[in-house]
Design brief:
The complex is a heterodimer of chains A (141) and B (394). Chain A is α+β, with helices and mostly antiparallel strands and 141 residues long. Chain A has one domain (4-140): Sufe protein. Chain: A (Alpha-Beta Complex), CATH 3.90.1010.10. Helices cover 43% and strands 19% of the residues of chain A. Chain A has helices at 4-11, 59-72, 77-82, 85-91, 100-120, 126-129, and strands at residues 24-30, 35-44, 47-56. In chain A, strands 1-2-3 form a three-stranded antiparallel β-sheet. In chain A, strand 2 and strand 3 (47-56) form a beta hairpin. In chain A, helix 1 (4-11) packs across helix 2 and helix 4 packs across helix 5. Chain A is globular, with a radius of gyration of 14 Å. The two termini of chain A are 18 Å apart. By secondary structure, chain B is α/β, with parallel strands linked by helices. Chain B is built from 15 helices and twelve strands. In chain B, strands 2-8-7-6-5-3-4 form a seven-stranded mixed β-sheet, with helices on both faces. A three-stranded antiparallel β-sheet of chain B has the order 9-10-12. Chain B has a two-stranded parallel sheet with strand order 1-11. In chain B, helix 10 (307-316) crosses helix 14. The longest helix of chain B is centred in the C-terminal third of the chain and has 22 residues, at 259-280. Chain B is globular. Chain B starts with a strand and ends with a helix. The mean pLDDT of chain B is 97. Classes of the chains: A alpha+beta (141), B alpha/beta (394).
């Protein structure tokens, strides 16, 4: 049911781990739903120098977070904010319909990490990043 | 080196050589319609009669009490919907069941609730067992049907069927049991256990998919589910699936012949797996009563990991298993069975069911015990939930 790309990212996830001195950390999802994504970013001169993730969830949750890290690493914050769940799905060669929500989480986890980065800089992230809906278990479409 | 281990026998089983040998000649040569008068039809009819005897013998029933169906789900639907029509005639509209029935039963009951029937779902407690006193207390004047599964398909717990049957018979309430997981695995005796209606399925015991049976105790005028021809003594229309019915009869007979020895062997494999996994994997637990469970059923939860990811990794190691996580059920919630025994969602998401069968060996268990702990560890290493669990522990 999964594409080769999904299985590749699930089997060999890129950028797994933590960044101890991260400049921004974002966590989305909740245990009740069965998936949590935690994204760490290291920013230098507006560029995401390093990114690491940890994910609790199904195969596609792990694959979407893995590919999302690849898609933003080395890019500017502005570019990372452009990352859409659709782009994540396309990069993975598609996801089963009931797994699309994993790609939404991947997008949100990047945004949450950037929001945290701005927050630490003393900048209100809301006008830049927008609001990231808190997961109340309603995200499973 | 990777092995291939099929540990999902509760989902379905491979058709055995013995069954296939009986079935293939029927497919090839005995194409006659059992309702036809000429010799070819008569031979097909005899094949059905023989399969009926084999099936009846396995349940300690009479052959005329066995009706072949297309699957376990059809049997469940027929039994429950038919029983409701019967009780309606007596002005009864209350049913007693459990919260962890198979969806074939549960969704049928939910459909009946929409039609105005009232259903009491008994608690199955943390050990996955119905309490007979609670069943007794749930019975009312207008209770017309009790439907409690013989053994649970996910956690394998075996219900006190004989006690339930006794109470139902005393109170004059119809008793149906979905015995799809039980027949051929543990002793079933519809006489001793006072069972009125019993559903079984072929593909759980090495017959092919698409064949099942319903036992209807003699004298119960269960209305038909479908209308049509006069097959199955006018109670289940549709030209008989002769080859599959022959397969079912042979499979049931084979399963019963080897039941005792297999039950002993599988129980020890099951216990070895459970003990090994509990020892090797911290924050793991067994779901359902440790002894009162099907010989080949293991169901465990591993905190901090999600079931689907676990299954994918086991698959890569050549191990076929299943899980009750939301992602594998394709719904919002994890398995209703695991929720019914009181597991929180986040624990239920990390469930794993291994169900062993005739082919399972001690080498398979050792292989699973070698592969499982590092897979769990790998998933935990990348799990923020596990990180939280460990932090809270410290």
């Amino acid at each position: 049911m999964y594409t080769q790309q999904v299985m590749d990212h699930f089997t060999h996830p890129r950028n797994v781990g933590e960044i101890p001195d991260a400049d921004g950390i974002g966590e989305v999802g909740n245990a009740k739903c069965g998936d949590i994504m935690k994204m760490y970013i290291k920013v230098k001169d507006g560029v995401i120098e390093d990114v690491k993730f940890k994910t609790y969830g199904c195969g596609s949750a792990i694959a979407t977070s893995s590919i999302a890290t690849e898609m933003i690493k080395g890019h500017t914050i502005e570019e990372a904010l452009e990352l859409s769940n659709k782009a994540v799905v396309e990069a993975l060669g598609g996801l089963p319909t009931h797994k699309i929500h994993c790609s939404v989480l991947a997008e949100q986890s990047v945004k949450a990490a950037i929001a945290d980065y701005y927050h630490r800089q003393g900048i209100d992230p809301a006008p830049i990043v927008g609001t990231i809906p808190a997961c109340e278990g309603e995200c499973h479409l | 080196m990777n092995r291939f281990i099929y540990a999902d026998n509760a989902a379905t089983t491979a058709v055995s050589t013995r069954v296939l040998d009986k079935m293939l000649p029927v497919l090839r040569d005995e194409y006659g319609n059992p309702s036809s008068l000429y010799g070819l039809g008569g031979r097909a009819k005899m094949l059905l009669d023989n399969a009926r005897k084999q099936t009846a013998a396995a349940l300690h029933a009479q052959p005329e009490e066995i009706y072949f169906t297309s699957c376990g789900t059809e049997s469940d639907n027929w039994a429950i919907r038919g029983a409701c029509e019967l009780m309606e005639q007596k002005g009864k509209r209350h049913i007693v069941s459990t919260a962890f029935e198979h969806h074939a039963v549960l969704h049928t009951l939910q459909a009946l609730e929409k039609k105005g029937y009232e259903v009491t779902y008994l608690d199955v407690h943390s050990d996955g067992l119905v309490r007979v006193e609670e069943l007794k207390a749930a019975l009312r004047e207008d209770t017309g049907l009790v439907t409690v599964m013989f053994a649970n398909n996910e956690i394998g717990t075996i219900q006190p069927i004989a006690e339930i049957g006794k109470i139902c018979r005393e109170k004059g309430v119809l008793f149906h049991t979905d015995a799809v997981q039980a027949v051929g695995q543990i002793p079933v005796d519809v006489r001793v256990q006072n069972i009125d209606l019993l559903s079984l399925s072929g593909h759980k015991l090495h017959a092919p998919k698409g064949v099942g049976a319903l036992y209807i105790r003699k004298g119960i005028p269960l209305p038909n589910l479908m209308t049509g021809g006069a097959q199955e003594r006018g109670r289940r229309p549709g030209t008989e699936n002769t080859a599959s019915i022959v397969a079912l009869g042979e499979a049931v007979a084979a399963a019963c012949e080897t039941m005792e020895e297999r039950a002993r062997r599988l129980s020890s494999l099951r216990d070895a797996l459970i003990e090994g996994a509990l020892k090797a994997i911290p924050h793991s637990r067994v779901n359902g009563h440790r002894e009162k469970r099907l010989p080949g059923n293991v169901n465990m939860c591993f905190e901090g990991v999600e079931g689907e990811a676990l299954l994918l990794m086991l698959d890569q190691a050549g191990i076929c298993a299943s899980s009750g996580s939301a992602c594998t059920s394709g719904s919002l919630d994890p398995s209703h069975v695991l929720l019914a025994i009181g597991l929180p969602h986040e624990v239920a998401h990390g469930s794993l069911r291994l169900s062993f069968g005739t082919e399972t060996s001690m080498e398979d268990i050792e292989y699973i015990l070698e592969k499982l702990p590092p897979i769990i560890q790998r998933l935990r290493d990348m799990s923020p939930l596990w990180e939280r669990i460990i932090k809270e522990e410290q």
